[in-house]
Amino acid sequence: xxxxxxxxxxxxxxxxxxLVRKNGMSALTARALAEELGCSVKPIFGLFKxxxxxxxxxFSAAQNLxxxxxxxxxxxxxxxxxxxxxxxxxxxxKEEKELFKLLFMRxxxxxxxxxxxxxxxxxxxxxxxxxxxSEDEAYMFHLEMWIYVHGIATMIATSYLEWSDTLVSxxxxxxxxxxxxxxxxKGKE
Amino acid sequence: xxxxxxxxxxxxxxxxxxLVRKNGMSALTARALAEELGCSVKPIFGLFKxxxxxxxxxFSAAQNLxxxxxxxxxxxxxxxxxxxxxxxxxxxxKEEKELFKLLFMRxxxxxxxxxxxxxxxxxxxxxxxxxxxSEDEAYMFHLEMWIYVHGIATMIATSYLEWSDTLVSxxxxxxxxxxxxxxxxKGKE
DNA sequence: TATTATAGGTAATATAAGTTGCGCAACAAC
DNA sequence: GTTGTTGCGCAACTTATATTACCTATAATA
Lengths: 189, 189
What we know:
The structure is a homodimer. Chain A is mainly alpha-helical. Chain A has two domains: 1-78, Homeodomain-like (Arc Repressor Mutant, subunit A, Orthogonal Bundle), CATH 1.10.10; 81-189, no CATH class. The first copy, chain A, has nine helices and no strands. The first copy, chain A, has helices spanning 9-23, 30-37, 42-47, 51-76, 81-95, 97-104, 113-131, 135-157, 165-188. In chain A, helix 7 crosses helix 8 (135-157). The longest helix of chain A has 26 residues, at 51-76. Chain A starts with 8 loop residues before the first helix and ends with a helix. The mean pLDDT of chain A is 95. Chains A and B meet through helix 8 and helix 9 of A and helix 8 and helix 9 of B. Chain A binds a DNA duplex through helix 3.
């Protein structure tokens, strides 16, 4: 009996994500989103309890988008799996600067470490296998490698740096090789 | 004939910097600052045209604080000059997380590149001398090294990572050594 | 001590944001 | 076609912020 909803949750989240990817989370206001959708603010609050709930949803949508970068990059098979992950992270930073800031340049105080550990395990496993080193060493290896990847990505996301995919790719290989020598050397001592 | 000012510009900037170092620039509101100073908002607007001007002043004060980190680190002579700079950057990230974000994790679109080039020249000069490589190579060397330093620093500033000074120092040396080998190798080809 | 320019406190104004009450209108069931 | 439910547009209310008008209090000088 009641009227149909003018928009679905997904349509609203999608419009919200568009605002955020252009100007960051602070650009996501009820009025701006209503404008983007071509309606009043009422439909928004009909489907979301408040703006906080919507922000959560947008955050999740951003995470999903990043996951799709990751999967695309890996499944394309242009690089080894581990390298694909780094390339995807950096490509995401280049193409979705605001979303990258939102996901990866935010404060991590009050973060559950366990989640992160789980995300990282797949990488450490890859490295253990590839280099034949212990899990702890593989964790440190990955951390050092990822510090580098994260460094490039943050510089690109803040427009401090502009590097072509080719340059990124070559440099990552060089860094990886350097690290590998160091870690394999360590094993011989 | 007029009454004395209740505060100097420096006192206001200092109180403002205190707010910002604790909770970031968004915590710097006229009312909060007045509260911190124990006065109404009037003295603030008597000495600063508006909040924007005050923000600029706080930004400069933050830059000065970073410079003092840099100078202290270099003049202490605990490490070679170049390494001191990296250590200072990372120590600043650890001890002044909000100020680090303000200075070094901000958007650089619309930035004059020349300023940066000048900041960097002193480092490239050091490296040219130390390794005997060309200016362009030294620039790339520094950039790669600094990507790493920046990576650690941003991770620490966002509380994603906690590393002791000792671990940082050792790892920086390892990275530097690895890079040096690569760049000197390159020269031989 | 009286004068006078002006800093400072109080409270008003302006703007932007989230949230909500009111009444109309859509629409499925009858 | 009537009806009951409820989404929606409009405009109001609320809160937080910057900025300012107005008046009082201060302090150097005559």
